[in-house]
Amino acid sequence: MDDITGHRQWRVPSTLPAAKLAGAVLLIALGLLFADGDAVRLVLAILAAAVLVVWAARDLIAPVRLAVDSSGLTVIHGFAGHRLLPWPTIEAITVDRRPRLGLTSETLEIDAGNSLHLFGRYDLGATPEEAATALEAARPVS
């Protein structure tokens, strides 16, 4: 957190869009390799690659998923927009832990009354627990 302005951001790790783009290239290569003249296989590989490219583009266009300052929280909204949630509208900041397939997944949940905002580790570039602790510390005392 910046001690002067009290501003902090959580963003997608820079390696994530690169991995998605590499996956898209790999899908196209596999589609070309295994198409055997079947256009459907190639088209499916290209469509899956296109989805990965769009997903990576979102990470590159709007890497900041969550930011906090004295006025409230700024969260990602839509494909690449942002929305300010003033502190009085935030009802709860929690970390949801769920066991799945022998692993525990964590999700940061921000309840703003009419909206619920969810962030995982790869949205934040940090653990949801670390982000929740920082958000609670930045929250003004009422």
Q: How would you explain this protein's 3D organization?
A:
The chain is of the alpha+beta class and 142 residues long. It is 41% helix and 31% strand. It contains 4 helices and 7 strands; from the N terminus they run E-H-H-E-E-E-E-E-E-H-H. A hairpin with a 2-residue loop joins strand 2 (64-69) and strand 3. Helix 1 (15-34) packs antiparallel against helix 2. The radius of gyration is 19 Å and the shape is elongated.
User: What overall form do the CA principal axes indicate?
Assistant: elongated
What portion of residues is helical?
Answer: 40-55%
Model regions low in confidence, pLDDT < 50 over at least 5 residues: 1-5
Determine the strand fraction and express it as a percent band: 25-35%
Structural class by sheet pairing and helices: alpha+beta
Mean pLDDT: 92
Number of helices: 4
In which order are the strands of the major sheet placed?
1-2-3-4
Number of E-type strands:
7
Order of helices and strands: EHHEEEEEEHH
End-to-end Cα distance, whole Å, is 21 Å
What is the makeup of the main sheet?
4 strands, antiparallel
Radius of gyration: 19 Å
Write the layout of secondary structure elements.
Layout: E1 8-11, H1 15-34, H2 39-61, E2 64-69, E3 72-77, E4 81-86, E5 92-100, E6 103-111, E7 116-119, H3 121-124, H4 128-138
Antiparallel strand pairs: 1-2, 2-3, 3-4, 5-6, 6-7
Helix pairs in contact: 1-2
